[in-house]
Amino acid sequence: MPSKSNRILTMSHAIAEGIANEMRTDSSVFVMGEDIAAYGGIFGATTGLLAEFGEQRIRDTPISETAFIGAGVGAAMAGMRPIVELMFVDFFGVCMDAIYNLAAKNIYFSGGNCKVPLVIMTATGGGYSDAGQHSQTLHATFAHMPGLKVAVPSNAYDAKGLMISAIRDDSPVLYMFHKGLQGLAWMASPEKAATEVPDDAYAIPLGEAKVVRPGKDATIVTLSMMVHRSMEAAEQLAKDGIDVEVVDLRTLVPLDRATVFKSVAKTGRLIVVDEDYSSFGVTAEIITSVVERDPSVLKAKPRRLAFPDIPIPYSRPMEQFALPNAEKITEAVRETVKKGH
Amino acid sequence: MRPTRDQLLWMYSAMAKARYFEDTMAAVYMEGKSPKFDIGAGPVPGEMHLCAGQEPCAAGVCVHLRPEDTVTATHRPHHQAIAKGVDLKKMTAEIFGKKTGLAGGRGGHMHLLDPKVNFACSGIVAEGTGPAVGAALAAKMRGTKAVAVSYVGEGAANQGAFHEALNLAALWKLPVLFVVEDNAWAISVPKSKSTAVADNSVRAAAYGIPGVHIADNDTLKIFTAAGEAIDRARAGSGPTLMEIETYRYYGHFQGDPEVYRPSGEVAALKAKDPIERLRKEMIANGGVSAAEADAALAAARKEVDEAVAFARQSPYPAPAEALEHVFA
Question: Looking at the complex, does the CB of residue A41 fall below 8 Å from at least one CB of chain B?
């Protein structure tokens, strides 16, 4: 048996453990959503919680996202700290009013006189042929809305620490985990998404990006699954003597522009990689943030790699054609470095 | 269940205050909007939805509530806010967009939110139903005796959010009273052209909960039915759906041409004004003297006048205060 301090956990278990840590010490924390009790969440994020905390605090809901997200807001304003699960982020269409007109705006509508400590956790991402209503990431859709914090972990350690911060935050937090990072028995997952996870409750502040690989020749700014694809690319490029720095944003709101800029100022080259749709998204925001601050740090034009502006196709060759991957990232970095002399 | 003398006076006072507030706001709203009407002009810009005629729905229910109980209200929220005990000066200042308002001018008349008395409203039809269920869930989980009242209009009874919330509240047996204020008009569309049933209270059967219909804007009948429903909720017996046939004297919003409205409708409604009916009833059978009623009326008007004066005299926020309070 490994000791608890250096256990390797999957991201799904790390999320569930972060929730459990907070539930043990704060009786106002509870979870509701579809299939989150006996099933443990379709993507495992509430595994084991029903057995420990019981059905009063781990509540299966009807398929009524508008009602239970709205109820989450009402409970949060009444002093609870609810975590609600929106099974697939794609399902936001049936409950977006409760998210962006209600959860995201009530603090403002109260002039800062109320708190809305609500976590909406939701599964994102494609790559496994689940087609256009079960594969989106929609990072930009939510990061665009004022009033929502947005956390997007890429690995188990960050997932737990960000979940604990999200629960403790007095503002609504959208917590987006990629299905393909969860370490599920039935879906492929990058090996490095599972990490050592301390068993105590630790918090990773919202708004701090992390340099996950230091380098000097180019900066890749990315998040979620694309952190892993970018790291694969960086390893490949290292063999050719191209030393890439990889920045994992970890949260989109607040956005750690300082860490991004510092990295780009050092390397002079910027490639942004996102699984979300290309136009009007994270890629544009990051590039603009750098260019607005000081375009002279760039030795080459910035590049973005993202999902083309099409619904996510079902057929494997079409979806894989559209998704950013290590090969595309490698090529984009090579071109950027070549042009930047 | 019959109201006590104090409850009668309280309801009369709350209704008179709401009516005088609305009639005052109707005049204030037109300042700066003539000769040419411009919705963005004057001391109170934007949309303005006035509730005159609907006061019994607020007073007859909220008389049973305590500060720890939650009310979620609609885009037509003034009577409900007043009856729930929202600070009238801060509420009025908010409607004027002033720094001293509930939200420092960030929300305006459709977004009155006062955590001190657990009151919120919303400009989105049926949006408040979910939060009321959540407040009731919090009360149940914490073992308090607090209840939640969710107000919607009859148009909202055709929204998915309304039905999801009813089901969830019934499923979890939560202390919620859903109040449908049927003022006959969803902007311009009459209930007969929007709703498959004539009486929304029958929809309670779909969720296995009691449904109550109150005819003719009757304050005392609302008092009794709401009291029973709220007692039932506090006792842990679950939610109730109540529909109240009420009246809307003004248009959907100020400036509404009301082309859809039959001539004479408003005059006929005003002839059976609920505030006058309550006044007669409480003097005839409630042990309240005319002098006491007059004093309550005068006090209510004074409070409104003072609130409007406070709002007028208050400063506007510094423009850049717009950037504050996005997050807690």
Answer: no
- Name residue, tokens 């939701």: A122
Nearest by CB to residue A66, choosing from B164, B326, B327, is B164
- Domains, chain A, ranges and CATH? 7-196 (3.40.50.970), 210-339 (3.40.50.920)
Each residue's pLDDT tens digit, B69-110: 999 999 999 999 999 999 999 999 999 999 999 999 999 999
Under 8 Å between Cβ of A23 and A49: yes
Q: What is the pLDDT of residue A340?
A: 56
A97, B124: Cβ pair inside 8 Å? yes
Q: How far apart are CA A150 and CA A256, in angstroms?
A: 12
Structure tokens at A294: 């000081």
- Please state the φ and ψ torsions of residue B245, each to the nearest 5 degrees: -75, 110
Chain-chain contact of B131 with A67 (C-beta, under 8 angstroms): no
Contact by Cβ (8 Å): A281, A322: no
Q: Is the pLDDT of residue B185 over 80?
A: yes
Residue B142 CA to residue A30 CA, distance in Å, equals 12
- Give residue-wise pLDDT tens across range B138-148: 999 999 999 99
Q: From residue B239, how far is each of A277, A323, B68 by CA, in Å? A: 44, 49, 18
For the question of residue A134 being annotated catalytic, the response is yes
At B133, the pLDDT band (50, 70, 90 cuts) reads very high
**In the predicted model, what is the mean pLDDT of residues A156-184?**
98
Of the candidates B122, B161, B325, which has its C-beta nearest A66's C-beta? B161
On whether the CB atoms of residues A340 and A303 are closer than 8 A, the answer is: no
pLDDT of B14 higher than 70: yes
Whether the CB-CB separation of B282 and B290 falls below 8 Å is answered with no
Chain A interface includes B139 (CB < 8 A): yes
All structural domains of chain B: 5-33+42-257+274-310 (3.40.50.970)
Q: Which residues pair with residue A30 across a beta bridge? A: A82
